[in-house]
Structures are given as structure tokens and as C-alpha cells.
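cache lookup: miss for this entity combination. No prior model stored, computing from scratch. Input as submitted by user K.M.:
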Amino acid sequence: MLLHDLGKYRGIVAAITLFLVLDTCVLALNYFVSKEIQQETESVNLAGRQGMLTQKLLKSLYELQDDLAVNLDVTENFQEFADTFGLFDVTLVALKEGGMVPVTDINDTEMIEVKPVNSEAAMQSVDAGLQLWQQYREILGPIISNGSKQVSLLDIHESIATVKETNATLLKFMNDLTRYMEQQANEKTQMLQYVEAAAVLAAILNFFVIMFIFVGRLKKNDEELELAQKENSEILSTVKEGLFLLDQELIIGSQYSRELVNIFGREDLDGKKLAVLLKDMVSDSELQLSEDYIGLLFKEHVNENLIQSLNPLKQIEVNLLSSSGLFETKYLSFQFNRVRVNKLVSHVLVTVMDRTIEVELERELEEAKTKAKGEVDSLVSILSIEKSAFIDFLDKASDGINLINEELKSSNQDHQAYMAKVVQFQRIIHSIKGDAAALEVSPVEKKTHEMEDVLTEIKNSDEISGNSFLPFTVKLDELFSQIGSLRLLSEQIANINDQHSDIQPAATPNMQSFSEINTLVKRVAEDENKMVNLVTQGLDSHHVPPAYIRKVREVAVQLVRNAVVHGIEEPNKRVELGKSPQGTVKALFQQKEDGNYSLIIVDDGAGLSVNRIKRHALKNDLVSEQDIEKMSNAEILNLIFQPGFSTASDVSMHAGRGVGLDVIKQSVVEAGGKMKLSYKQNKGCRFEIILPGKITTTTKTYNETEQNIGVEQV
Amino acid sequence: MKEEQLQVFIEGTKYFFSTFAGQQVDVGVPYLVSSDTKVAFDYTGIIGIAGARKGCVYFSAPGRLLAKLLQALGEEDLEDDNLCDVVGEVANTVSGNARRDLGPEFVISVPVIVKGQLEDIKLPREIRSFVIPITWGQDKAALVICLE
Amino acid sequence: MKLLIVDDSNIIRRKIRRSNKVGDLEVVGSACNGLEAVELVKQTQPDLITMDLTMPEMDGIESIEKILEVKPDTRILVVSALADKATAIRALTIGARGFICKPFTEDELNDAFEQLLEDI
């Protein structure tokens, strides 16, 4: 590893290297100097031994003299003397010139190397010693070379004399030498100590350098790191996306953004597998797909940009349970990006975005579009209806729905009571349907028609239970929604109209309350394949007092529709009967001389047939066969005002529910009015409704009151 | 709101009483209430619904009914905790039934038990709840279904 | 740069041929099934292949395996419908380099080619 690769660790590595080099140098120095000191110590010992040898030499001479005097064998002592001389000589020469010296005695094969003395004083001592030793060599050398056999007492005497005389001086020189060498060795030891002390000092200095400079630097680095981490965690705690890293094992990294916790509602993500995070949100197959997809990002050959469309978690819907027990639906978007370290993919960065708000907005927009599209139809009809008439319709429908709902709520649990309710509901729903048809609010007309189907089904079932009403309640809810959105729509239109009041239709608005009857007749006639001409008279706000507008319209709508559906025959039937193919329905409103109001609806259709009424009454179980035999024609005719009576042969959207006249009767009776019916077979039918001139009540309730109906056959 | 879906919740409730308490309930005529009206008795077990439809379904009953229910189940301890448990059990059965019958597009939670009024539950204003009156013996309870 | 187009749809083949970027490439052939594709790879040694995944005779996955045996440095672009994400991911796992989803616009195709040729 090169030094410049080390980055911020360069300094510390250099310092440690310096420390090691210093240490090695001191150790090497120590080794060499110690070795030298050891050698010198040995030399000192040798020098010391020289002193001892001078004494030993003298001693051996004395012993030799003694041997010779008593004529003993001299061999041993002579040898001793020669050895001592030899050892001294060798050692002294080695001290002067360097060389090998036997360790113990002259015959020892183990040698030590001696270096020449190098200090001034020691050299002087050696030189002085050598000078003196020269005398010894001259006197004692020949004796030794002659051998023990030739030695004479005289020689020894002479030798002793010389040695005795100089021995002390030689000893002194050797002792001086020893002292000087010791001194030198001591100096070296001391130097070594100084060097070592210096090295330790340097090491300590180095240590402090490391301590203060590099620890300082490390601390700074740590602070920077800490700051970076702080910034990092600040970013992670404020960023709006859920961020985390995944390694190749798809394990979540230790750092992730706060938002991730918010999104998933759990804290313990560190070190968990991705699967743990996702397992409650996506299906197993989606999870597998996601893992495979992330696996692709770890494959270097795959182009990251070219696989994004495969991301299975681009947008997912998840349902997370909140503490209140309700589900919270979130739309999450996962984005995966490679994280490269040294050009290799090391991790995948996952960004999780909560797109709930956007998705919901999109959805709302989509719903609004669909709704708007559906509303266009209604809108067209609403625009053509007078506002007050439409509001009236909505109010009435709402009242009807609320009444039904209240009735549902207070149900008693027996078949009879249920049956009564069904009949009551039929009447209310039929009335709403009639209005809807008249106003051409087709969605409501369709819905109420469905509701009538449901009610018929309930009525025809053998056993009515509370649960039987479930489909009806479901439809009631739907009707509720319809009326609600229509009301909203009409308010919106009202706002538009208020803003553009100058372009409000100038046509007689009051006339419009009744003009819908025209449209109704056209539509119903078309649906029933009949040709009908409607003639109206007095059906406008000049003639109809405001308090009666709704009532008159309601009754006129039902009766005119009945006339078209039940009265007027199909064109070819009419032609067969010798009538014009086009039937006529007249609706006349006027105030009579007695002050009462009269609404007359006349058609030139088939009239009523007692036999048909009988058959239907029997078929629908309105009366028993025995009872009907006893009934007068008028009584039989009165049956058509019974709830559940139907005279149309098949059930169509426009009639045949058998509640039409029932509703009218209720409505008239409720206003304190009377109703007259006259007819002539194949000639037509005439309804006259008399409403009191003095208006007493305008309740919108549907409560039953006593009958006040008259029927006559003309 | 589809009738069949409502029926699933009703069946769940009926199933609980007929199977565990061995006595049928009478299901009354369903009616509507606005979503800010909460039909609550003393104890209520709520399950959250998400997925194809969102909202909640809850079974609410008076303590007296629950106490009788506990007795019918052979439980003698009629303390508060047990009453909570048993209302939770009903909700649990309803939840289980719904999970089985409504298919995977419905996400159905485990029940949460609430004592007293249900003020904390916020439902969309524009939708109405279906109230299914339940009568068991002399006592009345209700199953309320509020789904978008 | 030599391009081989593998797709059983004539329309797609023509659409790829018409792409701008393809103008810079030499279209060395087109195959409408896997067997043909492998044969053409042997003969023409293309650098780039656009690859459909659902084809008669030999499916895309098998074809990719065989092609990469013949010429391992071939850059394969999977061209497939999104409906089968799992197969596309499998194709990429075994060695395809990129994916674009059918139907694609000319720009999308050009971008994809550019991405694939980036480091050549």
C-alpha cells in the first residue's frame, strides 16, 4: 500500500513508522554497544588477570627455586612458570595489537578475541608494560626455551632478582591498564544509557505528537463524522419520502428516514428483511416478483433505466390498520435505485412515496367525470323543468324516502304489519315514480321502478320477515343518493342561473308546472305504441291557486298517464272500433260557481269493464269469490281504488302496479276533496276531482284517511 | 352497497347466535341512518373494512343481552371484561364470515371493542349506514354496516 | 453495430426497423421464432437483439439462454407486454439487458437503444 493511498491515516502511519525506526535503531545500537562493552569487560578482566599473572609468575619462580634447592622434580612447577609467562605475554601482545587470547590458561583451546586498547592512557600503560616486559622476555625467555631439564638454580635466582625488582611496577602498569579500560567501558555504558534515555525521550515525544496532533485530528474527524451523521439523520428525519437501503440479501439497512416509520406504522425495521415489511401489503406472488426485480438491480449486466417499467411496486394499494380499528388505505409508490461503491452495485436505495392524496384526487376526478356524464341526462331534463317544480319533486321524494325509512325503523314483527308496509311503500314509491316520469328524471324513474319490483317480490313471498326488506332498503339507500345528487345539481344550476339572471328563460315559468304533462303523454304514448292528443285547459298558474299547484299536478299526471296506458286503445284496435286512430285525453281545470275547484280528465278510450275488474280483483286476491258475487257494480268499480289493484294486462314501466288510483285517492282525500268517476264502455272514461275552494290543508303526509270517492257509470 | 354483501354480515351474526348460543336471533327490518348517527348500545365490537369497499361494520349490544349470551355459552363470570370479550367474539365471527365469503378484494380487520358511545369513529358524511335490528329473546341489539 | 430483430409479429418487426436509431444500426436479419433466432445469431453474430418473449417453436427465455451460449456479449432488449412481468424479470435475470413494454412509441424504442449502446 502506498503512502498516498492512506488518506487521512498518512500522518499516524508515519508517526508509528518513525517510532518503530527509532526503536529499531536504539535496539541495534544497544546490541552493538553492549557487544562492545561485553568485549571490553572481557578485556578488562584480561587486564586484571595480567596483574594477577605478574604475582603468579613470581610465585612460580619461588617454587621452582625451592624445588631446585632441594633437588626435587621441577617439571610441574616449571610448566606452571612457563604457562604463566606465556599467557601474560600473549595477553599483553593482544592488548597492544589485537588477537586471540585463551580463556583460562595458555593451553586452553577456547579463545576470546581481544581488540587493541585505544585510549591514550591505556596505550601508555600497555607500552610501559611492554617495555618492562621486554626485560622479562630477555631473562626468562631463554630459560623457558631451554626447558625444564636445563634449568639451573642460578638462572632462577637471577630471574627472581629481576622480577622481584620490577614486579611491582609491572603490576602497577597492569592495574593502571585495568583501571583505564574500566573507565572506558564505563564511559561507553554511560553513553549507551544516554542514547537510550534520548530514545525513550524521543519515543515519548513521538507519543505526545501522536496524542495531541493525531488524536486531535481524529477528534476533528469524529466531530466532522458526527456532524455529517447529524446532518444525515436530520435529512432522514425531515425528508418526505421513506428512504432505506437494501443489501444483496434484501435486508433493510440501519438508517432509514422517519417518514418510513410513519408510512408503515412500525419502528423495528433495522435489519429486517424486505419481505417482513411487505408481507401484509402485497400478495406472495407480488412479493416474489418484487424480490426478483430488486435482484435484477444487483446484476451488473441489466440496464437500470431499462427495467423501471417492470417495477411491481410502482404503485400499490395497502390497507394499514389504525389504532381505532378502521383501515386506512394508502397508495404507495416504491422506487429502486442502484447505489454504487467502487463502481459496483453495493446496495439498492429504496424510496417510498405516499401518493394517497394524488391517487385519491385522481380518483375523485375520475368519479366526478363519470358522475358528471351520468348527470348530463338529468341535467337536460332539469334545465327544461321549472326550478320550483323540480325542488317540489325532490322535497316530495325526500319526504317519501324519510317516511319509508321511519316506517322501516318502527316495524312490528308480524306478517300482517309487514304486508301493510309493503302496500304503503308501493304507494309512496309509485307516486315518486310518477313524478319522476312526468319530469323525465329517468334515473329516478328507473330506480323507483326497480323498487316496485322488489316490493312486489316481497309481497308475493310466503313469509315476510324483517330480512325480506333488505333488498328494498338497499335500493332505498340508492334512491337517497340519487335524490341527494340531484338536489346538489339543481342547487348548482340555481347558482349558475343566479349569476346569469339576464338569460333566464323568459317563457311563462308558471306554465311549466304543467307543461311536463304534455311531455309525459308523448313519452308514455310512444312507449305504449299509442297515438294520443292531449288537450289541456286551465292548467296554469292563472287558474290553479298556488296551494293546489303541486296537488293538481300530481293528480293530473297520474290520471293522464292512466288514461294513456289503460284507457286509450292501440291505433288498430281503435280503427276496428270505428274510432280515429289517435285518441284524445283532455285535462281541464276550472273554478266552479260554488267556489270549489274541479279537475276533469276525460279520455275517449275503452272505458271500464266490470268483468275485467272482477277478474283482476279475484286474481289478485282483493276479494273472495263469494264476496264479489254479492257486490254491486259500483262496489266492484270501487275496487280499482284498492291498493294492489291492476288492470293493465302486463306490468310495464308506466302502469300496472295497481297503486295509481290508490295514490290519487289518498291525495284528494287528504286535501278534503272528492273524486268522481264515470265511464262508458268503448267510449271513454271521465274522472272529476273536486277540491274545496277554501284551502284547508297542504300536508305532504301519506297518512290514510277515510274514503270519499264516488263512482258512477254513465 | 350490494345486498349480498350486507347479507354476509347478517349471516355472520345469525351464525354466531345459532351455533354458539344455540338460539336464533330475529333479524328486523333494515333501515338507514346518516353516518353521524351512531346506533350504539353498551358494548360494541367494530371491524374495519377496506379494499373494494371501505368503512366499518359493528355489532352493538346492551350489557344485559351480552350477559345472557355469556350464560348461554356456559360462562359464569359476567364481569365487564367478559362482556367485552363476548361482543368481540360476535364481531370476530362476523369478520371471519365476511373474510370467507367476500373474497380477497375485501380487507377485513380483527375487531376493536368500544364501551359506551362511538364518538371516535369518523365516517364519510355523505354515506348512510344500514342498521339491522337484532332481537334475541327480549333484548335488542344492532348490526350496523357503513360502507362506501 | 449489427441488430437482429426477433418477434413473431410482422407489425412490430417493421416498427422496429423504421425506428430512427435503427437507421444507425445494420439490421442483419429478423426472426419470428426462437429456433430461427439462434440460427441467425450463429450466422450473423449480432451485437444487439430485440427479443419478444412469447413466440412459437422456442420461447423467449429458452432462446435467450441459447443465444447467450452462442454469443455471450450480445445485448438483448426484451420487447414484451407488461402483463407478464414475471417472465420479463426472468429474461433479465438470465442475461437480457433491458426491457421495453409493448406497445412502445418510437421515442421509447430509440431511448432504449441509446441506453443499451451507451458504453460501446
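stored under new cache key. The two ends of chain B are 7 Å apart (CA to CA).
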